[in-house]
Amino acid sequence: MDLTLLGTGAPQGLPRPDCPCAACATAVGDAARAATALLLDGVLLIDLTPGPAFAAARAGRSLAGIRQVLLSHPHDGPALEVPAGLPQPGRVADGRELALLDGHRVRAVAVDVPGTGYEVTGGDGERLLYLPPGAAPAGLGEPGGAGNGGAAPGGPAPYDLVLLDVLARPDALARLRAGGAVDAATDVVAVHLDHWVPSGPELHRRLASLGARAVPDGTSLVVGEYHAVPDLPRRTLVLGGARSGKSVEAERRLLAFPEVLYVATGGTRDGDEDWAQRVALHRERRPAGWRTAETCDLVPLLAEPATAPPLLVDCLALWLTHAMDEVGAWDDAAWEAGGRRALRERCDALVAAVRETRRRLVAVSNEVGSGVVPATPAGRRFRDELGRLNAAFGAECEQLLLVVAGQALALRG
């Protein structure tokens, strides 16, 4: 099954008309995107992009053989243009199936926003799923299970290709993964791209961290053909200074995965209102399906099997503070009398567990070596030990990021 993306942008396109934002200002050339529309084998058109005939011609395709035009969502953008000779656009009721004469089968999939998703099966059994802007499948449970108003997507096997609004709804991708509709071999392509993420390297980095990719308008794909999907690192360390955005970056990397375990190493601090507000902000950002564990006992969690949910550890600086408390490292005499050795043993055990872990892991830590030298021996001790821990922990990670002013710089991976 051949698929040509006549457009890959949001309904208003990218850049948005008359929008002065930086993302729109840099959306030029291949980064400019018309409203998303799919042309399948030259016979099925899903959604309409401005100037569809010209868009098809630029992609080396013709609309002359189209037998069915389907719409997936209420239209919000430039006026719809239906070229002369095309069938009148329509929608398929949720759960209903449409069989085309050339062998394609189209099944409507219920979604959680106004609109309809479409599962398309080709003559050789290859399957794709297309979701409208800002949508996730509704009522998705186990593969092949029933959803609200119709069968849930997933069927007997994962899809070969999934096209959805990854950046606006990473939770949709998480649900598809949880239901078995997306696996490591599924090609996940982001569509309905809008101006919330700058075009270029940042867009591709964000998508790759979720296991997805973007392609320019006019790109043709063969559904079911092998494509090297983004290689998601098993272990990632995210470094950054205070309020740099490091925790947001770490959380963003797991938004498309179900059942994440958020490990908060800071605990609670009675009477500290500022700390309580920080904790509350973190909790409000987390998806409802994530679980939280307040613990510094990380080694047993890292030893759990690869089938266990991903871990997000925030953060190593607070873990180190707890470890230094327990070994008496703040006191000079206790430090020299055995605290140094005890702390190194704890850090070595943690690093060894990271080396051996088979769980997906994203950890956060503070980068404290670039600021003012602490005035006290205990402060300098903490700074030095955290620097050593960051270096040793990062050496065991496939990906190492430094976040500065909300921008993630890849140091490795």
Ordered list of secondary-structure elements with their pairings:
Elements: E1 2-7, H1 22-25, E2 37-40, E3 44-46, H2 52-58, E4 68-70, E5 97-99, E6 105-110, E7 116-121, E8 127-130, E9 146-147, E10 150-151, E11 161-164, H3 170-178, E12 187-190, H4 201-209, E13 220-222, E14 235-240, H5 246-252, E15 261-264, H6 273-285, E16 291-294, H7 298-302, E17 311-314, H8 316-327, H9 332-356, E18 361-366, H10 377-395, E19 399-404, E20 407-412
Helix pairs in contact: 8-9, 8-10, 9-10
Overview of the molecule:
The protein has 413 residues and is α/β, with parallel strands linked by helices. The chain is 27% helix and 21% strand. The protein is built from 10 helices and 20 strands. The protein has a 7-stranded mixed β-sheet, with helices on both faces. A 6-stranded mixed β-sheet has the order 5-6-7-8-11-12, with no helix packed on it. Helix 8 packs across helix 9 and helix 8 (316-327) crosses helix 10. The protein is elongated, with a radius of gyration of 25 Å. The two termini are 33 Å apart. The model is unreliable at 141-152 (pLDDT under 50).
In short:
The protein has 10 helices and 20 strands. The chain is α/β, with parallel strands linked by helices and 413 residues long. A 7-stranded mixed β-sheet has the order 16-15-17-18-14-19-20, sandwiched between helices. It has a 6-stranded mixed β-sheet with strand order 5-6-7-8-11-12, with no helix packed on it.
